[in-house]
Design brief:
- With 612 residues, this protein is α+β, with helices and mostly antiparallel strands.
- Helices cover 50% and strands 11% of the residues.
- The chain has 26 helices and 16 strands.
- The strands form four sheets. It has a five-stranded antiparallel sheet with strand order 1-2-3-4-5. Strands 13-12-14-15-16 form a five-stranded mixed sheet, with helices on both faces.
- Strand 14, helix 13 and strand 15 form a beta-alpha-beta unit.
- Helix 16 packs antiparallel against helix 17 and helix 16 crosses helix 19.
- The longest helix has 29 residues.
- The radius of gyration is 28 Å and the shape is globular.
Length: 612
């Protein structure tokens, strides 16, 4: 894209950015008074001299003199040029980079128009709540015991029955209609050439961003036969669900200094808790807890309590929240989990037992993230036996490795050592094995090689014969070697002509390699920073981060030779898998002729040997 980036956009970008988030995602920062400190990432030092000022949104190193704002840090740390750094920072905020001042001014004006439309819509819904047509909504809020104060605080309203009430109120000019379509408040039916209101005969919960602007809406049915129970605004230029938390603006308005935030699942949970004297609840908007959510939560408070139903769905949602939260657990932060009795949600429970009893439940029944983590994993294994301890270590270690280095990391590692009987040194050596360990909390078995390795370690430790075994020499798979070297030498992508087969493989690392090759071929100037930015917050991005954090391949050959050799080995393995799958289509060996039978057995044996 050609053209200069307007200075007004750059200023706005920096105003929306917290330099602590930018640097903290790349460097381990520690609080030192008003500022944060770390060992400088731009020169070697043992004593931290690198300082980040949240107030001034500026960093400075007293050792080497490195200094600047968030953009300068991205340029220097990720080794990007200025336009790439702006693109990356804008992408993290969900913004498009304009290339001329007029274009940016048009975009800014467009956003202001959309905010005005959502504001007018919120006012309309509030006005409809107490009109004769809103009797069913009035009856519902009376049943729920919602006060006028709470209704006003959360701007709760009512969307009347009918197809074009909001459309007629805003005005059906082409411009207004287009704005309503953009914000998702009306829906277009091309076949019938009609446009109608998205929300009809529903209680309306407006969603506000951290600045209090209306960005979206949630609607709850008032008739038990209507479906779905909750209907949400779609994602729009001003509303991204993974970045917003319902009730956060209201919570901060009530209490500027929040002790903790309680994360629940629904709008009514947030509102009912506020009605009963617990105003610091927030809800995700129909999505799992995201990294953006966790960043915003910990930016607001030091303690987060996740509140879920005690059923299987609630447990799964809680585990996903744990996985997302672990990498953010710096020393001083707390995350807890509260599971409610069967058939209860925060709304029903707080109305049944009241504020004090609910707060007591939060205090006494919430599990720390560490307790919930180990309890969940221990339920899947029998730690009374050697193979159970091995499996526990195999399950837990990859998660613990995601924690920031610090006291909490050491405590988690120490507790795992107590449960397994392994020394922390022995557990640390497992960081060389993660390519073969599962990190899923399911009934999948840990690969036999990994389990045998762990059992051997446990046996040696129990017999007190283990003193300091040499580090296990476990080679990376061909795909992992290729991924690692491609990160260091992006130009190697030019050596690969065809990568279509890689994208269809079941192995995550092979698919990751295929994605990297495509990204690098489409953008030959891309760096590691570009790859990380493209893969950020994706399943493959997590796999990529794990590979980058591993020890490098130990070889005595030139890097390009190792890369090409890895690709050759990988291609051979894929060919073997194709042959094996093709021959596996036969119902049994007896249905094969002798040549196919021999090829099948040879492919099976070679495939087994290649995966050792």
């Amino acid at each position: 894209m050609s053209g200069l980036i307007p200075q007004t956009f750059i200023d706005d970008l920096l105003a929306r950015t917290d330099i602590v988030d930018v640097i903290g995602s790349r460097v381990q920062l520690k609080k030192t008074g008003k500022n944060l400190a770390a060992c400088c990432p731009f020169h070697q030092e043992k004593t931290p001299s690198f300082t980040v000022s949240p107030d001034k949104q500026f960093y400075y190193c007293f050792g080497c003199g490195a200094a600047g704002n968030a953009l300068r840090f991205i340029i220097e740390f990720d080794q990007l040029d200025f336009p790439q750094a702006v693109e990356q920072l804008a992408q993290s905020l969900g913004l498009d980079v304009p290339r001329e001042a007029q274009q940016y001014q048009r975009q800014a004006h467009r956003f202001e128009v959309l905010f005005e439309i959502t504001k007018q819509s919120a006012t309309f819904f509030q006005q409809q709540l107490f009109k004769p047509s809103g009797q069913s909504a009035q009856h519902y809020i009376q049943q729920r015991g919602l006060s006028a104060t709470i209704l006003k605080q959360y701007a709760i309203g009512y969307a009347p029955a009918g197809w074009q009430n909001l459309l007629e109120h805003i005005g059906q000019s082409p411009e207004n209609t287009q704005h309503l379509l953009t914000t998702g408040l009306v829906i277009e039916n091309p076949e019938k050439q009609s446009i109608y209101d998205r929300f009809r005969h529903r209680l309306i919960f407006p969603i506000r961003d951290i600045r209090g602007r209306f960005i979206g809406f949630g609607g709850r049915v008032l008739s038990p036969n209507d479906k779905p129970k909750y209907l949400n605004s779609p994602e729009t230029p001003i509303f991204q669900k993974r970045q917003e938390l319902y009730g956060l603006f209201e919570a901060r308005q009530q209490r500027r200094q929040l002790d903790f935030l309680l994360v629940v699942e629904g709008y009514m949970d947030v509102v009912a808790l506020a009605q009963n004297g617990i105003p610091n609840a927030v809800a995700t908007l129909g999505t799992s807890v995201s990294q953006e959510h966790v960043t915003r939560l910990f930016k607001t408070v030091k303690e987060v309590i996740y509140c879920f139903d005690g059923d299987e769905a609630g447990r799964k949602a809680a585990w996903r929240a744990l996985e997302t939260t672990l990498p953010f657990m710096q020393d001083g932060y707390q995350a807890k989990f509260l599971f409610l009795p069967e058939g209860e949600d925060p709304d029903s429970l707080v109305r049944k037992e009241g504020q004090q009893a609910f707060l007591t439940r939060l205090k006494r029944s919430s599990q720390s993230i560490a307790d919930y983590f180990f309890q969940t994993l221990c339920e899947q294994v029998d730690i009374q036996h050697m193979d159970g301890k091995a499996r526990l270590a195999a399950l837990a270690k990859p998660f613990i490795e995601q924690l920031p280095q610090g006291v909490f990391y050491q405590l988690m590692l120490g507790h795992l050592a107590e449960l397994t009987g392994l020394s922390e040194q022995a557990l640390s050596e497992l960081s060389q094995v993660p390519s073969q360990l599962t990190t899923k909390t399911s009934t999948e078995s840990v690969p036999k090689q990994s389990t045998q390795y762990l059992e051997k370690k446990i046996t040696r430790h129990s017999a007190k014969n283990f003193v300091s075994a040499s580090k296990l020499s476990v080679s990376l798979t061909p795909a992992q070697v290729a991924v690692y070297l491609l990160s260091k030498y992006p130009e190697f992508a030019e050596q690969v002509e065809h990568s279509d087969r890689l994208a269809n493989d079941q192995s995550e690392h092979t698919r990751l390699l295929a994605v990297m090759l495509k990204l690098l071929k489409d953008n030959p100037q891309a760096s590691v920073g570009h790859l990380i930015g493209e893969l950020y917050n994706t399943p493959l991005g997590n796999i990529y981060a794990a590979v980058l954090n591993r020890p490098p391949p130990q070889t005595g050959q030139a890097s390009k030779e190792v890369f090409l050799e890895a690709l050759t080995r990988l291609q051979q393995q894929l060919n073997l898998e194709d042959t094996y799958q093709e021959l596996s289509q036969f119902k049994n060996l007896k249905s094969m002729d002798d040549s196919k039978k021999e090829a099948f057995m040879r492919a099976f044996e070679q495939l087994r040997q290649s995966k050792r």
